[in-house]
Amino acid sequence: MHLRGKTVEEFRKYYLSYDNMCHIDELRLLSKPLPLPEPYNKMWFEINKVIDPLHLANHSRRKCKELYDPEKAKKDFPEANFMSAEQTFAWQGRYKKIFNSMTKTHFHFMIHRLIKGRNRYTSRCYKRNRKPLLPSAKVVKSKK
Predict the structure, then answer these.
(1) Cα(108)–Cα(21) distance, rounded to whole angstroms?
(2) How many CB atoms are closer than 10 A to CB 67?
(3) pLDDT of 80-94, one tens digit each?
(4) Distances (CA, A) of 18 to 37, 86, 101, 119
(5) Are the CB atoms for 50 and 68 separated by under 8 Å?
(6) Nearest-angstrom CA–CA distance, 12 and 19
(7) How far is the first Cα of the chain from the last one, in angstroms, to the nearest whole number?
(8) What is the pLDDT of residues 106-131, one digit of tens each?
(9) SS3 category, 56
(10) Which residues are within 8 A (CB) of 132 and not within 5 positions of it... i.e. 6 or more apart?
């Protein structure tokens, strides 16, 4: 939704963060334009890709650290929260025992309601210029 109506040049202002971005970017499937209408077919080539700081320490290849360095995104977005996925997993993990005892239908209903509520809370916090209370993900700085 955020990329609707954007030009190829505008794609370059966006960042995509994933813990294994280097291997995703190397997939043969993504070496050709996407099967989407123009200009979205070129989106993958133009959007900036980074590995979140938590997982970058696990990457031993120099290419990973140079091409997918999260510091590039920090220059444009100093307040970027690369740990949001890890925080979401930690938050959802609190409900693991409860979810395991539910039927599939009850589980889907419950996870839907929890996510809607959490998103509403997060939105409300940002509208009030407050940071939402989220579980933390620990980042270990690698020695260079």
Answers:
(1) 29
(2) 15
(3) 888 777 788 888 888
(4) 25, 11, 31, 21
(5) yes
(6) 20
(7) 39
(8) 999 999 999 899 889 988 998 999 98
(9) helix
(10) 121, 122, 125, 126
